[in-house]
TrEMBL record:
UniProt superkingdom: Bacteria
Needed co-factor(s): Ca(2+)
UniProt name for this protein: Glycoside hydrolase domain-containing protein
Entry keyword set: Calcium, Hydrolase, Signal
The keyword Hydrolase belongs to this UniProt entry's keyword annotation: yes
Length: 678
């Protein structure tokens, strides 16, 4: 009988393991303390602008510090993982007992959070719970008996970014629109909102400061809020559409939505590593924000309302995440990605700014290299109407900055993109402009004996060194090999770069540099290096405050804890988390603009991509944490004989089997795809 009971328990346990919801692996507190990611445990929903989070004292860029125990109130939006001293933090709500006092702080005693919800208790006897699904959220407050209320600051923002606010109180709802400066104060975005508080409420008004005086016997109070990027009427309707949902029902609905996105990738392996994986995948699903309504209405960057057949998104950090987060979204959510790239294309129709303009429909950061993303999408089979935006694309290239060494290499990349987008004489014109990078590379990047090659932001470059930016020619790696003096010299220089810890994992300028090994004499070193950077202790001298520290960071980069990442390392809208997720899958795109993926041994014994009905399973034979080299690759039973895949091979689904080895091999070394401009 005991054996039968044990067997039944084992079956039950295994069944529970296979149905374990991915959201339960997510640690939303990852990267939420110190300058270690600029992330938050906000109640949020995939790709939705509304998110609810405590404003702590002291605070960080997202308005929250995990170790802080004092709370100023709760705010409703943010741009996760970006810098510039904060972005978002609109509409602060604060519960109070007795009389409202804006200077009084609440003292946290306990908090709990997961995908879609955040809950907190205070010494003062108040508890609060928050959940968000899409652009609708509920605050549920629990109060003791006595005088109480909610103060609502409609002009609050992080980093003093508030511009103006208009509102009216109508049928018990607060209806309005608030404008704020975008990230880095570069432009202005507008959010339309609708607010309703349950029970008998006596609203006090003092400009943009409202006070909801509540019934003294009210022990549970709901504060309900809806956002729209289009108009107040949509926010109001969203509030009405969700009027029957309470906090628990909304929490369940949000969790289901999160699991719908997270479950598109299934991984099998170590439980702690799975928790890190899903926590980082979760981070890549916060932005861009869905800004269109169900009827296809959306606002463009011209401030006008337009119509679309598909969804429209906004809230870009393309310079930061075009190498990682955006390719990951394409790989995992291809149907959604068509709408994402159509939204990027719209920037060229209605007003594209490197950072932000006066009529942004959502909080946003920057859009450089948008054309790279569009070319990449076109080559992967997405519908991009280049004829409609051709003139705008050409005008955009006229604004490129060729005055600094780093900017020159980046502009040359876009010139190569233009040569791929156009034909004939136009294509040749841009190709020749792209090739001029070689003169600048020889002048600025070839000689590594100059005294400033290791100094951050030398020669007026942006957040990087000469050594770090010299690899930033992904469209012509074969040309880099030749400029470096041939394959042997190139290999020695790549070795020197990594062996002496000149790389900077705290920022994006050299993010693609590990792929250089696939053009060297040591392609196997790439396979080991990406795993070292993902899961091993590393030595990191460079930081995102433009410094080369005397004392290096010696630790893992990716840790499932509040002090994650390297100090000063912003996640940058999923850019850094996306790199880890791609490494875990065993796939990295060396050149955004060509549908080619380099292979490495995945971080799990088995990975399964949903692939929209054409699942791709990536299995590792001889899996071990020590087996990091590729011995053999088969795709659907046929030996591949190479270390890279094409997008169409991934889209076709099936089974990719990677046989791993503890020792370096030369497998596929004679058939490596390397970019070349010639």
């Amino acid at each position: 009988m005991n054996k039968i009971l044990r067997l039944l328990f084992l079956i039950s346990f295994l069944g529970a393991q296979t149905t374990f919801a991915q959201s339960e692996y997510v640690n939303v507190f990852l990267g939420s303390s110190g300058d270690h990611g600029q992330l938050s445990p906000a109640a949020s929903s995939p790709f939705s602008q509304l998110s609810i989070l405590p404003q702590t004292y002291p605070t960080l860029h997202v308005g929250y510090e995990h170790l802080a125990k004092e709370v100023l109130g709760f705010t409703h939006n943010r741009m996760e993982g970006v810098g510039c001293q904060g972005s978002g933090g609109l509409i602060m709500v604060k519960p109070f007992l007795g009389e409202a006092d804006d200077k009084e702080r609440l003292s946290e005693t306990n908090e709990n959070a997961g995908p879609g919800f955040y809950e907190i208790d205070f010494e003062e006897g108040i508890s609060a719970m928050f959940s968000v699904n899409e652009n609708f959220g509920i605050h549920e407050y629990h109060f003791p008996d006595g005088a109480k209320g909610l103060s609502v600051n409609l002009q609050h923002s992080l980093n003093n970014a508030f511009v103006d606010n208009e509102y009216r109180i109508e049928d018990g709802m607060v209806l309005g629109k608030v404008r704020s400066k975008s990230t880095c104060h570069a432009g202005t975005y507008t959010i339309y909102y609708a607010i309703q508080v349950s029970g008998d409420v006596d609203w006090g008004q003092d400009g943009n400061f409202l006070t909801a005086h509540l019934d003294e016997k009210a022990n549970k109070v709901e504060f309900r809020i809806a956002f729209s990027s289009v108009d107040i009427s949509y926010a109001k309707q969203r509030l009405l559409d969700n009027e029957k949902l309470d906090y628990q029902a909304l929490k369940r609905k949000s969790e289901k939505r999160w699991n719908g996105f997270l479950s598109k990738i299934e991984v099998k392996g170590d439980e702690e590593r799975k928790a890190l994986f899903y926590s980082l995948l979760y981070r890549t699903l916060q932005s861009p924000f869905l800004t269109s309504e169900a009827d296809g209405s959306y606002r463009g960057t011209d401030g006008e309302i337009h119509q679309s057949k598909g969804n429209r998104y906004h809230g870009w950090a393309i310079w930061d995440n075009y190498k990682t987060q955006l390719p990951l979204l394409e790989l995992v959510y291809p149907s959604m990605y068509q709408d994402v790239v159509s939204s990027i294309s719209d920037l060229y129709r209605y007003g594209k700014y490197d950072f932000a303009g006066p009529h942004e429909p959502a909080n946003t950061v920057r859009t450089e290299h948008a054309a790279v993303v569009l070319l990449d999408a076109k080559k992967k089979g997405y519908d991009i109407h280049f004829d409609a935006i051709k003139d705008s694309l050409i005008r955009d290239t006229a604004r490129f900055d060729f005055s600094k060494p780093d900017k020159y290499l980046e502009a040359a990349y876009d010139m190569w993109v233009m040569s791929e987008l156009f034909e004939g004489d136009e294509s040749q014109h841009y190709l020749e402009r792209a090739k001029t990078y070689r003169e600048v590379w020889n002048r600025e990047f070839k000689d590594l004996t100059k005294r400033d090659v290791d100094r951050m932001s030398a020669r007026n470059m942006y957040q990087g060194t000469i050594r770090q930016y010299r690899w930033n020619v992904p469209f012509d790696v074969q040309g880099l090999v030749e400029l470096a003096g041939g394959k042997d010299a190139f290999t020695a220089q790549v070795d020197d770069f990594f062996d002496n810890h000149y790389f900077n994992r705290a920022n994006e300028p050299d993010q693609q540099s590990p792929t250089m090994y696939y053009a060297s004499n040591k392609p196997w070193r790439y396979q080991s290096l990406v795993q070292e950077l993902a899961v091993d202790t590393v030595i990191q001298y460079y930081f995102n405050d433009n410094s080369r520290g005397i004392s290096p960071h010696i630790d893992r980069i990716y840790k499932n804890e509040p002090k994650a990442f390297v100090r000063t390392m912003d996640d940058d809208a999923g850019a850094m988390s996306g790199w880890f997720v791609m490494t875990a899958l065993g796939l990295h795109q060396p050149l955004i603009g060509e549908p080619v993926y380099y292979l490495n041994v995945p971080l799990f014994k088995e990975v399964k991509l949903d692939n929209e009905g054409m699942p791709l399973t990536i299995s590792v034979v001889n899996y071990s944490v020590d087996n990091r080299y590729i011995k053999k690759v088969t795709l659907n039973g046929e030996e591949l004989g190479r270390l890279w895949l094409r997008k169409d091979e991934i889209a076709g689904g099936g089974e990719l089997v990677i046989e791993a080895s503890a020792e370096p091999t030369q497998y596929g070394a004679d058939n490596i795809w390397i970019s070349s401009i010639d």
